[in-house]
Amino acid sequence: MKELTLKYGCNPHQKPARIYAQEGELPIEVLNGQPGYINFLDALNAWQLVKELKDSLHLPAATSFKHVSPAGAAVGLPLSETDLIACAVDDIAGLNDSLIACAYARARGTDRMSSFGDFIALSDICDETTARIIKREVSDGIIAPGYTPEALEILKTKRNGSYAVIRIDANYAPAGAEKKQVFGVTFEQPRNTAKIDFSLLSNPVTAITEIGEAAKRDLILSLITLKYTQSNSVCFAANGQTIGVGAGQQSRIHCTRLAGEKADIWWLRRSAQVFALPFLSRIKRPERDNLIDQYIASRGGVACGEAGWEAYFSQKPVPMTQDQRAAHLASLARVSLGSDAFFPFDDNIERANESGVQYIAQPGGSVRDADVIAACDRFGMAMFFTGMRLFHH
User: Fold this and answer.
1) pLDDT at 308
2) Does 254 qualify as catalytic in the annotation?
3) Which of 101, 135, 215, 259 could pair covalently with 129 via S-S, beta carbons 3.0-4.6 A apart?
4) 111 and 41 in one domain?
5) Among 45, 232, 239, 348, the one annotated catalytic
């Protein structure tokens, strides 16, 4: 197929709209639903991310995309009991037997608020376990190289049968040049085929020069995630997954603050106080995510509006004290941070330190590199200059 007609473009008044292949055939097949313009933008960017993660780290990979940036990305590592609860998949039997399911549970668990209505990409064939996780989440669609018959049947029942399911040719390789139009002007450049692998971590610039394999994996994961994130962007990662993505900010420190705040929320969702919240069994998953976010953000309880706490909980939630909050956040450690461009000031390092960052990969090249390196040494961080900027627009 060379062309697909879309319902409309970015907005309902932008029609007609289509996607098409200038040469050859489209590398995709729609198996269910009618994906839209933004769905395809998410799908094709997301697919590139998971394919590159799989090629570089040799593990199944998944991402949860929203508005052409990842809300979360992860590789397939087994989930601990804490992970299972925090990712809201502790009731899925045999989850750890499917590494692709583990990858998506982790990716969705990075930022469950932002993943509401996501587009999913999987590096591997979608199996039944993964489909069972997806079925009960609010999601717009999925792209993967294939689906088991059981998984496809489950996904076809989602959203009253309209859930978008796309199969992509895993061997598809586009032309070396890419084009886009803005205001009637055509831009052309080589595709960003820069390879992100462990060789990028060969230039340590801090007093600490040696780090473990898990930290290296997480740095590569963060850099590949940034390659497909709208710039400016900073990504925090830990234990094989992103834990905070700060995307599309005009200031580097705002990227770092946003990513750090999301990482803090990710970690606080794993606190004893959050796990003890006495939700009523009828509360839906999106409502529960919103209430957890309110509980963490309020620093004193849950704002339940006129309905009161009785509408959501079996008993009044016990507020998290400032001391409990501080103690839990202080236990966050061994976090990796990637940046798509250099840090112009050491305030980024100060903020990163507040969220447990110990490993950093960034291009380098700022006139204040020495100040940034000194800040890393002061906090006992290891930092690598990659020499590779990763802007994405």
Assistant:
1) 81
2) no
3) 101
4) yes
5) 232
**Pairing of the two strands 118-122 and 69-75:** unpaired
From residue 233, how far is each of 223, 320, 346, 351, 389 by CA, in Å? 10, 31, 16, 15, 11
**Domain endpoint, select from 115, 134, 168:** 168
Gap between the Cα atoms of 19 and 26, Å rounded:
9
Q: Are residues 207 and 353 in the same domain?
A: yes
Catalytic residue among 51, 54, 66, 262: 66
Does the annotation mark 66 as catalytic? yes
pLDDT digits (tens, 9 = 90+) for 267-286: 999 999 999 999 999 999 99
Residue 107 lies in a domain: yes
306: pLDDT strictly greater than 70:
no
Residue 393 in any domain: the answer is: no
CATH number at residue 75: 3.40.140.20
Q: Which of 13, 58, 160, 393 is catalytic?
A: 393
- Domain count of the fold of the chain: 3
Q: Let me know if 58 is a catalytic residue.
A: no
Query: At 299, is the pLDDT very low, low, confident or very high (cuts 50, 70, 90)?
Result: low
With tokens 């450690």, the residue in question is 333
67 is catalytic: yes
Confidence of residue 305 (pLDDT cuts 50, 70, 90): low
